[in-house]
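As noted in the main text, all predictions were made from sequence alone. Below is one such record, for Transposase.
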Amino acid sequence: MKKHRDGREEYYHQLLCATVVHPDYPVVIPLMPEPIMKEDGDNKNDCERNASKRLLKHLSEQYKHLKPIIIEDSLSANGPHLKWLKSLEMRYIIGVKQGDHSHLFDLIQKKNVSRGSH
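Prediction:
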C-alpha cells in the first residue's frame, strides 16, 4: 500500500517480468512474472534484485536449451549480479548510464586515452 500526501491510499502489486524476443520475429512472448512482495514472516519488503535472482534461476532451469541473452538495465550492473548470471551460465547485455556508473565510464575514458597515446 502506498499513502499519498493528500491522504489517499493506493494498493498495487509489483512484478518483475521477462519476455522472449527474437530479432527476426515480430512476436513477443511474455513469461510468468516474479512478484516483488513481502514473504510470509518477513519484516522487510522484497526488492527487484531478489526477485531477479528468483526469476533468473527459474529461467536458467526452464529455458537453458534456448541459450538466452539476458538484457537488463543499470540496476543489474554490479559485481554480485554479474557473478550470479555467470554461475547460471547466462550471457547478458547490461545497459548503463554515465550518471549511474561514472567510475566505469572514467575507466573506459582512461583506457581510450592510453590507447591513443601509443
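Residues 2-116 form one domain. The chain is about 35% helix and 25% strand. These features were considered when defining construct boundaries for the mutagenesis experiments described in Section 2.9.
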